[in-house]
TrEMBL record:
Domain named tRNA wybutosine-synthesizing protein: residues: 13-207
Reactions that this protein is recorded to catalyse: 4-demethyl-7-[(3S)-3-amino-3-carboxypropyl]wyosine(37) in tRNA(Phe) + S-adenosyl-L-methionine = 7-[(3S)-3-amino-3-carboxypropyl]wyosine(37) in tRNA(Phe) + S-adenosyl-L-homocysteine + H(+)
Function, as annotated: Probable S-adenosyl-L-methionine-dependent methyltransferase that acts as a component of the wybutosine biosynthesis pathway. Wybutosine is a hyper modified guanosine with a tricyclic base found at the 3'-position adjacent to the anticodon of eukaryotic phenylalanine tRNA.
Annotated protein name in UniProt: tRNA wybutosine-synthesizing protein 3 homolog
Pfam families with a match to the protein in the record: TYW3
EC number, as in UniProt: 2.1.1.282
Organism from which the protein derives: Romanomermis culicivorax (Nematode worm)
Length: 213
């Protein structure tokens, strides 16, 4: 088909991509999906992963970096992470991070964002048929925001992105109460627990579908 890549070309692109150093901040694959990533990359000729995150709970603040280039002032928005976890957290973990941030009086007027981001899994697919097969499996496992993008000059770069609808975000400030933070932790933990269950289900069904012969 028009969008499909041949085995040799795809295998070459896969080998080059997977040989690159992981440039993410963490520098490695998240533990809850490490086995899935290795299985897919090592045993499935029609797929390889390009980016992944098992899901995370974060507390962060936006900041503006001013840069002067050729006498023109540019503003670059960046995030300062106060807390990051790829597992459920307890209330005191959030409270301690919150308190430490606002102990600095210069932060008292700043707003923090408490956010849960679910599993995201980007997979390059060799053919449209293999992309459709993985897309159907993802939907079956509850990843309703999964979608396919087609790129490259020859329209043969097929990337399937698996996502769910479990995302949440809420603002916190210096006046936020312990009760409100407790509720946020409980809600985020419920979503993380569901998120990890969905990952395990997808892992099982993917390996059952693509068994090593």
């Amino acid at each position: 088909m028009y969008y499909d890549s041949d085995f040799i070309t795809f295998a070459k692109h896969k080998a080059i991509f997977l040989s690159k150093i992981d440039m993410s901040q963490k520098g490695s694959v998240d533990e809850p999906i490490e086995n899935l990533v290795l299985y897919l990359n090592n045993n499935c000729d029609d797929y390889f992963t390009t980016s992944s995150c098992s899901g995370r709970i974060t507390l962060f603040t936006d900041s503006i970096d001013e840069q002067n280039t050729d006498e023109i002032k540019h503003h670059k928005k960046t995030c300062r992470f106060v807390l990051t976890s790829h597992q459920i957290i307890d209330f005191h973990t959030l409270l301690n991070a919150f308190s430490k941030f606002y102990d600095d009086e210069t932060n008292r007027r700043k707003v923090l964002s408490f956010k849960f981001e679910p599993f995201i899994f980007q997979v390059r697919c060799r053919t449209l048929a293999s992309a459709q097969m993985l897309h159907n499996l993802a939907l079956e496992c509850g990843f309703r925001n999964t979608g396919l993008t087609i790129g490259g000059q020859n329209k043969k770069k097929l990337t399937l992105t698996l996502r769910s609808t479990l995302i949440m975000e809420a603002p916190l400030n210096f006046s936020s109460t312990a009760e409100s933070m407790q509720l946020l932790v409980e809600t985020a933990n419920e979503k993380m627990t569901k998120n990890l269950e969905m990952i395990r289900n997808f892992d099982f069904k993917f390996k059952s579908t693509f068994k090593i012969v």
